[in-house]
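Cross-check.
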Amino acid sequence: MPAENTPKTILIAEDSSVILNLTRKILEQQKYKILLAKNGGDVLPQLEKNSVDGILMDINIPVKDGMQCTRDIRAHADERIRSLPVIAISGNANDYTMADFQAAGVTAYLPKPLNFDELVRMVRQYVG
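Predicted model, tokenized:
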């Protein structure tokens, strides 16, 4: 089976079940395979045991926030993990500037409430 037909895998790090389920449904309709992390402590273990193509990272997740998770990803020993696109999602974006996101290593940013057309466009752009 050619590689182009293999679905890309997205890790969604999000603690809100409503947003998680909506986002998952929308991306599954677009033929993405979805993995879930309900808190920041689950993100790196998921990335280390699965082949992931991109990450949707809620900034306000419990245990370890999305900014710290992204910094940990960018500092990871494994180049495959270190170079993953991280799309940050936040309802409190005013707490952060684009410079803060860039300093943490965030690839792109989506505000909440999510615009799902924009979400799909961004995932396609950065993940393929």
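The first strand starts at residue 9 and ends at 13. The helical segments are 17-29, 43-49, 66-74, 79-82, 98-104, 116-127. Passed to J.P. for a second look.
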